[in-house]
């Protein structure tokens, strides 16, 4: 979950970069677009965290591993993007692979409290809407820094009010004041998280929300594999099957992208060949008449 303090740090960093490095002024996207983005960000974070009161962590991971599928569906609705059936197969493969990794780590019996499942499902839906709406703002000319700043500052206001009401805000401030080492970690994490968020937003702007979520999902898979390599665990075939599904899905997705890139080139070559053929035929006809 993105905490109140993280939102504050990201807001400050984006403001400073926007003001003093990018020299941006004004706003391209209408202000009315940002409350919806902020709501999605707030809902994704808070509902995901609240769900842990009713379900255990592995169950949450299983559900959030399926985020790629609703992201693709919402991209079709909001941004009118079309996906081939093979792309959905690749997405399902990656999602099921991550589910297998999570299932292999289950030490407790999975918790399936209905209300917890509703909360985490709504969190996934909000998380799927977020990159697609961001992509839509980018298409009308909004910059990466503009979207980051306005989304986070509105979410910060809402999150601050929520954490003040729940008492978490004061508890966090008290803990940070008492532990200087924690403060150092927070500062380090600020830089890393801001770079990660900025990179993620740049990917959305350049390649679209679905590609960004695909990369984020792949990153989760690679993290699990790296964790398994660095911290050996008891062997389970679920790890092997999960790795095969994740890597297979990523390979299929990569091959599909390459195929889609080659198709316009082949059409261009065919068009060029046809044009040359017609021109040659016309020259021959003229020469025959002469």
UniProtKB/TrEMBL annotation:
Keyword Iron set for record: no
Topological type in the membrane: Multi-pass membrane protein
Any one GO molecular function term: 3'-phosphoadenosine 5'-phosphosulfate transmembrane transporter activity
Pfam family, one: UAA
Keywords associated with the record: Membrane, Transmembrane, Transmembrane helix, Transport
Subcellular location: Membrane
Transmembrane regions: 33-55, 88-106, 145-165, 185-203, 237-256
Keyword Transmembrane: yes
GO (cellular component) term, any one: endoplasmic reticulum membrane
Name of this chain's protein: Sugar phosphate transporter domain-containing protein
Source organism per UniProt: Eucampia antarctica
